[in-house]
Structure formats: C-alpha cells, structure tokens
Amino acid sequence: MARRNFGTQVTALVVDDNALNQKIHQRLLESVGVRNEVVTNGKEAVDIHCHGKRFDLILMDMDMPIMNGIQATKELRSMGIGSMIVGVSSRCPETEIRKFMESGLNDYHEKPLNTAKLNSILHKMNPNFTSNNK
Amino acid sequence: MDGLVQLQKQLVDYTASLFREGFLDDQFNQLQQLQDESNPEFVVEVVTLFFEDAERLLNELSKTLDSSFPNRGQASIDFKKLDAHVHQLKGSSSSIGAQRVHSVCISFRNSCEEQNVEGCLKNLQQVRHEYSLVKTKLETLFRMEKQILEAAG
C-alpha cells in the first residue's frame, strides 16, 4: 500500500523508441500508480519539456534515432531540468555506461526493467518508501 | 468441473516445462505479475510485439547475411549493421524472458565482433530455430489459457 501511495504522487516520462519496451515500462509504472507519458526519442523528450511539461522521473533509453539518450540528458540538464533521470539500456560496456552516467543521469539500470529495479528507483526518490508493501 | 481442473493442471505443468527447459526465464514471470483485471491481455500483447520485432529483425539479418551468395567474402558483409540488429533482438528477447533466443544472440554478437562469417551464418540458423521453438511454445501456452477461460465460462 505504501509503495502505491507514493507512486500516485509521482509523474514519469518514458523515453524509448521500441514499442515493446514502452509497453513494459508503462505497465510497470502504472502498477505502482505512477502517471506516465511516452515519447519515442530524445528530441521529443526535450520538446515536451520546452512546451512546459515537467516530470518527477524520466526513464531514458540510450540508443534512439534523431537524438540519443546521452544528448537528450545533457540538453535537459542544460535547460535546468532537475528531474530524476534514470538511464535504462541494454548496453553493457563500462565505458558506455560511464559516458551515459556522465551526461547527467541520477541512476542507471540494465534492461529489462522489472519490479525490483523500479522499487529501487522509487526508494532513491523517497527514502521513506520501502518495497515491503504491495 | 473435472475437465477444467485437468486443463489447469496441464497449463501449470506445461508452463513449468518451459522454465525447466530454459525457453523462458524470470522476466516472463515479471510480465505475468503485471497482468491483472484491468490489463487482462498484457502478456499476449507484449509477446505479440516481440514476435513482430523478432520477425522483422530476422528478415533484416537474413538480408544482411544473404545466404544465396555462399562465396560472399568477409569484406562485403556489414558486421556493424548485423551487430546492431542482433543487439536489438537480444534486447527484445530479454524483455520478454525468451532465454534461449537471448543466449544465441550473445554468441551471435561475439561472431559479429570477430567478423566470423561462418559463425554468423551458424548463429542465424540457431536463432531462427530457437525463435521458432519459443513462438510455438508460447502460442500453445496462450491457446491453453484461452481453453481454460472458455471452459470456466
């Protein structure tokens, strides 16, 4: 119950070009009450913020057409966006993950995202939150 | 009622065999846990997206590694493009818990990195085979679930 209550106070943006990942991430977020929107590349993520929208949490894929996750994260940070930005990618090399983190991420998780990883993200956002409650 | 109980047992046993034989891993469990009354078709929808993704990517892999030209030299194959497609397939298969497809994709990526044409051809055959198997298994699973729903009225 506590997890779902905190979740309902959070808004999220899913940034991913793959329909399968979009669906899974959206459903994961919905399962804990997080209202969310989806965009399909980094440029759309930047544009939605230019139009005034703000989100508590951004799940950012790395490899996307037009603008990738690294560029998008840098742009959002340079715009002063202070949201929790979590990189979610299936890229493994340390060097690539480090580059992604250095662009301004708060956290990084390897795909696929699952309940345990989402719980850990929500716990980072609110240390009072625990995953014991469902 | 007995018929329904029998169907349910068959489903449980069949699902367990898919995990035991390595076709599926815990990620599939995660997807099932996300399915509820408000999203009753979630797993079928996600797996359908995986099928579409996989078929498109297998097509692309075949085109890139065109096997109608067996003497195709290493120099003419775009290994970077090949690797990009395999990477996507690896990601999709991992997202739905298709463990055996995912494992073959890991080998396939190694072959791409080594620019090993024969290895890539073999891996393509393997990934097609594993994909075909898991597709059949999942379609059977969904058919069984549908039979149970119909039997339960």
Radius of gyration from the alpha-carbon trace of chain B, in angstroms: 18 Å
Query: Could you describe the largest sheet of chain A, including whether it forms a barrel?
Result: 5 strands, parallel
CATH fold assignment of chain A: Rossmann fold
The profile of the biggest β sheet of chain B is: none
* Shape-level CATH architecture of chain A: 3-Layer(aba) Sandwich
Which strand order spans the largest sheet of chain A, edge to edge or round the barrel? 2-1-3-4-5
Specify the structural class of chain A: alpha/beta
| Mean pLDDT over all positions of chain B | 92
How many E strands of chain A? 5
Roughly how many Å is the radius of gyration of chain A? 14 Å
Overall CATH class of chain A: Alpha Beta
CATH superfamily of chain A, please?
A: Response regulator
What is the count of helical runs of chain B? 6
Summarize the structure in words.
Chain A: The modification 4-aspartylphosphate is found at residue 61. Chain A: This is Response regulatory domain-containing protein. Chain A: Keywords: Phosphoprotein. Chain A: It holds the Pfam family Response_reg. Chain A: Residues 11-126 form the Response regulatory domain. The complex is a heterodimer of chains A (134) and B (153). By secondary structure, chain A is an alpha/beta fold. Chain A has a single domain (11-125), classed as Rossmann fold (3-Layer(aba) Sandwich), CATH 3.40.50. In chain A, 43% of the residues lie in helices and 18% in strands. In chain A, strands 2-1-3-4-5 form a five-stranded parallel sheet, sandwiched between helices. In chain A, helix 3 runs parallel beside helix 4. The radius of gyration of chain A is 14 Å and the shape is globular. The model of chain B has no long low-confidence stretch (mean pLDDT 92). Chain B is 78% helix and 0% strand. Chain B has helices spanning 2-20, 26-33, 42-64, 79-96, 99-114, 117-152. Chain B has one domain: Four Helix Bundle (Hemerythrin (Met), subunit A) (Up-down Bundle), CATH 1.20.120.160. Chain B is mostly helical. In chain B, helix 5 (99-114) packs antiparallel against helix 6 (117-152). Chain B starts with a helix and ends with a helix. Chain B is elongated and about 60 Å long. The chains are: A alpha/beta (134), B mainly alpha (153). The A-B interface holds A 18-21, 23-24, 27-28, 30-31, 90, 111-112, 114-115 and B 27, 30-31, 33-34, 36, 39, 42, 45-46, 49-50, 53, 87-88, 90-92, 94-96.
